[in-house]
Amino acid sequence: MKDAKVIELDEVAIRFSGDSGDGMQLTGTLFSDATALLGNDISTFPDYPSEIRAPQGTVGGVSGFQVQFGQKQINTPGDYAHVLIAMNPAAVKANAKFMKPGGTIIYDSDAFNEKNLNKANFKTDDPFGECNLDDYFKIPVPISSLTKEGLKDFGLDNKSVLRSKNMFALGLVCWMFNRPLDYIEEFIKNKFAKKPVVVESNVKVLHDGYNYGMNMQHMTPSYLVNPANIEKGTYRNINGNHATAWGLLAAAEKSGLELFLGSYPITPATDILSALSERKDLGVKTFQAEDEIAGITSAIGASFAGDLAVTTTSGPGLALKSEAIGLAVMAELPLVIVNVQRGGPSTGLPTKTEQSDLMQALYGRNGESPVVVLAASTPSDCFWYAFKAAKIALERMVPVLLLTDGFLGNGSEPWRIPKMSELPSITPRVAKDAGSFQAYKRDSENLAREWAFPGMAGFEHRIGGLEKNETGTVSHDPDNHQKNTEIREEKVQRVVDMVPDLETCGDDEGDVLVVAWGGTYGHMISTVRELRKEGKNVSLAHFNYIKPLPKNTADVFSKFKKIIVCELNLGQFASYLRDKMPQFEYHQNNKVKGLPFTVNELKQSVYKLLED
Amino acid sequence: MTDLKYTIKDFKSENEVRWCPGCGDYAIMNAVQRTMAGMGIPREKFAVISGIGCSSRFPYYMSTFGFHTIHGRAAAVASGVKAANPDLSVWVITGDGDAMAIGGNHFIHLIRRNMDLNLVLFNNRIYGLTKGQYSPTSDRGVKTKTSPFGTVEDPFVPGQLVIGARGTFFARSIDSNIKLSQEVFDGAAKHKGTSVVEVLQNCVIFNNGIHNAITDPNHRADRQLILEHGKPMLFGEENEKGIIFDKGKLKVAKVGENGVTRDDVLVHDANEPDPTIHMALINMQLPDFPVAFGVIRSVSAPVYDVEMEAQIKTVQQTRKIKNVDELLSSGNTWEVTTENGLTGKDCSKFEFK
Ligand SMILES: Cc1ncc(C[n+]2csc(CCOP(=O)(O)OP(=O)(O)O)c2C)c(N)n1
Ligand code: SF4
């Protein structure tokens, strides 16, 4: 071992990249899970094309998976990768801009032939030179042919053989980063339990890759990343969509209600539907509807009938649900609407992340149609915000719209598993006294009406989309409409008593307050920490509660000389803040590339503000 | 439950009914209320869900649980109600515009799923509430405010959509015939699966008399075939005419003429799974045929809400996870036993209020 160059790092980002058929998402996920199991903190970012079968070998068909892990807290998947695993030339082209200067590129040299170079539109036979990657550490590994060689006695056809070349790459990377293979082997055995040949061949190739690394160690740097220091407890790796699904399950159990999900598949929200469909064991009713409208209206029906009702979607699907959200507002029924945002407008960038549905969430309906709007900020806290969304909906008889995004939904991180007993109670406003029940009689404090559903004798009543008076009778009285419009808005505003105060990360006062919301949290906190380490007087105010805003918001804002609102859109939250709190000046940093922020670009924008 | 003694009054709400005087909706509601009163089901177990249209005002006039929703979506809302609580008797009230136009997608999918609920389609072949535009069941060439020169499109025949979507129950009635409507609703209520009842309804304001050719008392016997399961398809003043099968098609024949005997007349089998004859009956129209009424099709098939409940029960018996704690700690987890200062992700710690 004495030849080995061992590089010790606090944190390292690896990007697996290849053709969408190369299995890079699985490779990345397996590596991340194995890494998290070793006690590193991680953050992942799958980045895949929207076409399932974009032409093979082209830049459009490149599928990537980045994971950052470390012995300290990891908040982002990393702006740039230390190590790139490139299964073909297109992967090099697509990822050159995401490489850390001086990083390492491991590539399948077999795939760097004329045909593939052409497909990736390289003009010369020097793809690295063309991408300005000359001074990077490059490790050519004939992955395809080594995989073929390793499997020659298995009697497999060429296609099946090449399908396992990702395992070679995975084995090699595991060696580089000192990850044991047992977790991955276990996974392969379970996944292909019914196909022993597939198990054997994949395990063989995995080990071949690992051994190759070991044997070639004189030329390959090996990295050492020690386990992270994290809070005691039981951990698991979780992505945002699973966390959302599980938060809803937790809310159903806490509230003693059955969970109903009406949904229609759409990227990147579909995984919530899948995850809940898996949970028949917990009694979940999932209804794959004929479209988004049926998704939400079936949920509204289930809510009318007394279930914890949820609908999940992404941007274009939310647009279709608008009319029905209005119905839930008018009927004052509890409903959780999850929108996993993606690039828009229209079908936009289906597999990329964006925060541009905020205005749609707040205002995208006919009439004065207020709903509570929340936004989760990390993959794992999707659990908490989904739970909270359900709690607010059930206790206040109001639709709650939860915003996550593609970055959170697909990204993952280790999560300390809570005990159900640690979670707060949820008390749905189920009507108790038939004698005094009236459909629109309200609680004087929080303005919520009571919930009575079919089957409850003596509570028979009619609701619907038409304006009603207090007894539930249809009313066209102008004053009644004015009054009820105000009440519906006020009811949402009073949810503020369930909203924790806004806290700043950093000092309570200073030169610059960085303001952000939702899924950008990881990048924001990393940025502000780095700036503070540099001695800059900068703090972060990150919002999870958008409507209503935390009640001390203006107070927090007033203590800073400058405010900059950073979001992945053209300034929707900034506009909202200008509307709600016009007394402050808001600078903006906006990005709409379908990509998360990078810490570096965020820092630049703050430097500029500090100089001005 | 059979000792429940309801009368029609028990199903009328205090709300003032606001249909135009003479509107066919009154009679249909009367029949629905009579049916419900006789079902032996406690009143609180009814849920009446409607879309938008004149007919969809219906729930307000019922003293059960009611939900007046949005245009075209009643079928989807009702699906959620029934899935949430399969114990309920769920009724969908909809119009030809509501169910066939904006709600067409939900209508066919409801039927395909075979959710156990009863859908009553008020077919006045016009948009009533929006004041007289043509609807998807209006005849080609019909002149309305939005088709001043006549429409250039063909109508849907609701029953055809029902058969096309693999419907298990389809019946036809007419507003003025409360007794028939009540019988048909009763059949629909007893049917396990989606029951679609098309009721020909007269809109006195915008389409007055649209069904007159069928209802005209002077010709009714010749123009209406009231089907009954197990009975021959006879009609006419003296039951002298019958439907026979000839060269692969239905045909009207006079018993005793051209060698046609009573035995040649088709016997109605609503329970026949093969929909061919049901479809042919649905397609019969004036002037060559009488219009078919009564329960045309009633066959058994798996029911969505029942299957959904059963699947949940089976999975619960075979899977290990019984609660959320077990779920959270299932699969790949690991223990961190040494605490070293860092406490999770600071500032993202979740706080409850
Ligand atoms: C989204 C939407 N589009 C249009 C309308 C207007 N609208 C209300 S009822 C109706 C047609 C109703 O016709 P039908 O279902 O035949 O009911 P009828 O009034 O004849 O009983 C229309 C177009 C609406 N309320 N909502
Ligand atoms: S407009 Fe026609 S359908 Fe509507 S209530 Fe009047 S008569 Fe009935």
From TrEMBL, chain A:
One of its GO terms (molecular function) is oxidoreductase activity, acting on the aldehyde or oxo group of donors. It holds the Pfam family POR. Transmembrane segments: none annotated. Residues 260-470 form the Pyruvate flavodoxin/ferredoxin oxidoreductase pyrimidine binding domain. It comes from the Bacteria. GO terms for biological process: response to oxidative stress. InterPro entries: 2-oxoacid/accept_OxRdtase_asu, Pyruvate:ferred/Flavod_OxRd, Pyrv/ketoisovalerate_OxRed_cat, Pyrv_Fd/Flavodoxin_OxRdtase_N, Pyrv_flavodox_OxRed_cen, THDP-binding, Transketo_C/PFOR_II. Residues 21-210 form the Pyruvate/ketoisovalerate oxidoreductase catalytic domain. The keyword Oxidoreductase applies. Keywords: Oxidoreductase. Signal peptide: none annotated. This is 2-oxoacid:acceptor oxidoreductase subunit alpha.
UniProtKB/TrEMBL annotation, chain B:
One of its GO terms (molecular function) is oxidoreductase activity, acting on the aldehyde or oxo group of donors, iron-sulfur protein as acceptor. The keyword Transit peptide does not apply. InterPro entries: 2-oxoacid:Fd_oxidoreductase, THDP-binding, TPP_enzyme_TPP-bd. GO terms for biological process: cellular respiration; small molecule metabolic process. The lineage of its organism: Bacteria, Pseudomonadati, Bacteroidota, Bacteroidia, Marinilabiliales. SUPFAM superfamilies: Thiamin diphosphate-binding fold (THDP-binding) (SSF52518). This is 2-oxoacid:ferredoxin oxidoreductase subunit beta. Residues 52-199 form the Thiamine pyrophosphate enzyme TPP-binding domain. Keywords: Oxidoreductase. Signal peptide: none annotated. The keyword Oxidoreductase applies.
